[in-house]
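Q: Could you write out the predicted structure for this multi-component system? I'm mainly interested in how the pieces pack against one another.
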Amino acid sequence: MKLTIDRGAFMKALSHVQNVVERRNTIPILSNVLIDAEGTSLRLTATDLDMEASDTTIAHIEKAGSITAPAQTLFDVVRKLPDGSDIGLLLDTETRRLTITAGRSRFALPTLPADDFQTMSKEDAPNSFEIPAADFRRLIDKTKFAISTEETRYYLNGVYMHGTEVGGSVKLRAVATDGHRLALAEADAPKGAETLPGIIIPRKAVAEIRRLLDDAAQDSDVSVATSESKIVVKVGDAVITSKLIDGSFPDYTRVIPQSNAKILVLKNSEFKSAVDRVATVSAERSRSVKLTLENEKLILQVSNAETGQGVEELEAQYNDDPLEIGFNARYLLDVTQQIEGDDIRFELNDGASSARVTDLADQGAQYVLMPLRV
Amino acid sequence: MSELIKDTPISCIRRLPADAVNRIAAGEVVERPAAAAKELIENALDAGAKHVRILIEGGGLSRMVIEDDGKGMTVEELPIAIERHATSKLQPDDEGHIDLLNIHTLGFRGEALPSIGSVSRMTITSRAKGADEANELRIEGGVVEGPMPAAWTGLSESGTRIEVRDLFYATPARLKFMKSERAETMALTDTVKRLAMANADIGFVLESNGRKVINLAPEQGAFEEARLKRLGAIMGKEFRENACEIDAERDGVFVTGFAGLPTLNRGNAQHQYLFVNGRPVKDRLLTGVIRAAYQDFLARDRHPMAALFVDLHPEMVDVNVHPAKTEVRFRDAGNVRGLLIGSLRHTLAAAGHRASTTVAGDALGRVITETQARQAELHMEGSEGAGPSQATAYQAGTSVLQSTMGRSSGSETWRPPINETQRAGFQESGVPHYEGQSGAFEATADMSARIEPNEMETPQARELSRFPLGVARAQLHETYIVSQTDDGIVIVDQHAAHERLVYERMKKQMKFDGVKRQALLIPEIVELSEDEAMRVLARAEELQELGLEIEPFGVGCIAVRATPALFGEMDAQGLIKDLADDLVEYDAGLALKEHFEEVMGNMACRGSVRAGRRLTGEEMNSLLRQMEDTPHSGQCNHGRPTYVELKLADIERLFGRR
């Protein structure tokens, strides 16, 4: 194998795949990235056996070939080489080392044979659709914060997506929950996604897909194909293939309160900073904030025997019976981060039941928060 | 098989002959030599013995002799004694009824002697108080011979001597199930120990194959004092030095005894003893109670030492559950449990910051062995010429110095006394003055040891020295605080000590603020067996106070509605299952509390002063004062000590002054 490639292009392709590689591995080849040189393109592939990322870029290839080399080291070396330089890759057939040259720099990395590299089996993907990158990005952004990290409930360790009919139009929905709060975002279902059965995309794949979307061209489409056990997402030349979580996502529609009658509307930015301020005195991990609702007024209060007390009073649109309810400050802050409009809207019932939160500027997203009780 | 059954003649119902009955009873009461010994020793105790001597051969199987100096039996009583259900211990009331609920003696079933007699070759020799001669009765496999006059070789003028030979010879099947001689001897020794613990005023001697295994004279002195002496003699000197007395009463139930400090812990629960009305009892209640009381201080796999004596009206406890009487049933188990846990906790709290002397003892032991090792080395070299005695003394000295001063040589750690102005400043403010505020700081900046000036001459310092943990003198390796007390030095692990302080403060705060519960969007459904679920649900209220809301959800299922907010996202399934296990095993929901401790322990760890942080004198003294004021500050959350005290006497011993 012998080739030359522009440092910028090489760097971008590497960055699309190297994150998949786990930092610590018991199987040595999993630390490596697979390099395939053929025709005019260089293809890089990395895997952790549960997901695989690959990217293709143009290179000047003198001699085709395949090899694997340590992903982290290769990435670090390329990252530190000056921008705009041409990088030469050469596989020394005798020493089985991969030589990297650029200007006066020269590196030789150990390799492992490409045949030992495990790639994910290709299979039929009965469901496929093209979705605008911006829509896909929004679906992920508005939900991924609520993904559970508790391993025992593995079926919550990802974003649930499915096509469903909502009020007469067909939507593609993304939902995530950790059992304490829930986030739901929907977009008009693109052709082919209307009948998408429920899939759970694992957290790591969600994060990697989201990274790829950062580099997606303006107004471009992303192609998504799913089977019962896998999802393939193509963004430009980059492809992520991931196993899906094999489990059943709970019936989330039942936990979204539909008849909470007490409506509270607040200036989101004011609310956000007020919550942030009072939470300073809640030292404990539960970070409980008490919300007291009165006519046209919201009082935020934290009191802690040891760390003290914090009170904030906010103007609010509220004209129902007075109400007291407690929330985890972090959960409140997470939700305020998702709100795009000026106002945040709470639908409440009483101090012990869940609250529904919506964004007046984005009706396609909603959040459910469970209260804290003392 | 079917043919065999067919061939068996159909038999009619018959009464079993007496010897068969006795052998069956023997199977229940006397399942091994230790059990036989227990029955016979209890008889001796019930007979008012002051001394009991036990001789065994072959683990008690080939020969066992129990001698006492009790009131003995008359020639008339002897033959009745070996009849089944014959006992002197239950007296009928005026109407001729016997009250089995009101039992004051250790034995009462009247099964022991005939049972043992039916499976061995037994000789009972007894001389009643005031009688002129002794009498003897022989029973071989249930066949009685005697009584006949016999020579008296007993411990005192009256008493009984029972010799049992070839135990279980009449039941070869049972004999096959005996463990090794060693195992049987150990079990028997354990039995004698337990009885001896419960009867401090009685002397016990146990000889196995001619070797004295136990030799305990009757303990003198006041009851508690004698008991502690006896416990010390059996459980070890350490226990005696590190035990706290327990004395509590609730609703007619009395708890006395001694509990070891948490820093004195073991890898198994063998050193935990329970006695009910003077009767050694093996009950899992004890394990649960002790774990619940010590859970703040000990890791799950460490066990404290304790000997607890529960005394209550005989009507409130049923000892007639098990023929060997090793199990009891309390009428109000909840009360007994609550009282035991409460009194243990109370005692531990009162013990406050006391840490076990074993820790200092250990350290001391190591230093001494090290010194001795060096001495041995030196003696070897001594032949080469140099005066061995001098060299030895010198070596021993440095070794100690190194151990106590953190491996820095003596001259380096010395700091010149501070100047007069600084001293004056100190006297005005009344606060001890420390270097580090002055230029002296630079001189010490690169040293890991910081020495505080000696202020012992001033009245303020003298006052300070009354504090149990003394006055901080130095910080070594930015990790250990060395303080001077009236009669020794204290070395404090600053991180462990502060961690404990923070933890105790958090616990107090949680109690004050209440536990916040994070409601769950989707209730977590946990599947258990039906009785497990019932058991967990019975505690729903208690669990709610700790932040766990549960409710029934069909048969054998529990719905978790809210979890403690402090835990964040958690494995509710796992927790409920652990709780169910705990409730079966210990009858107490320890898992949740343990989880709390783990989480708070981690938070405390993060929130406390690390090793490696330089502390000023004020900070060090403040830490010491807080430790004195905080209960349980003598050990970290895992039962390791937070400080070690070396008494002057110990130090003098190191230097060979004593």
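A: Regarding packing and overall arrangement: Chain A has a mean pLDDT of 92.
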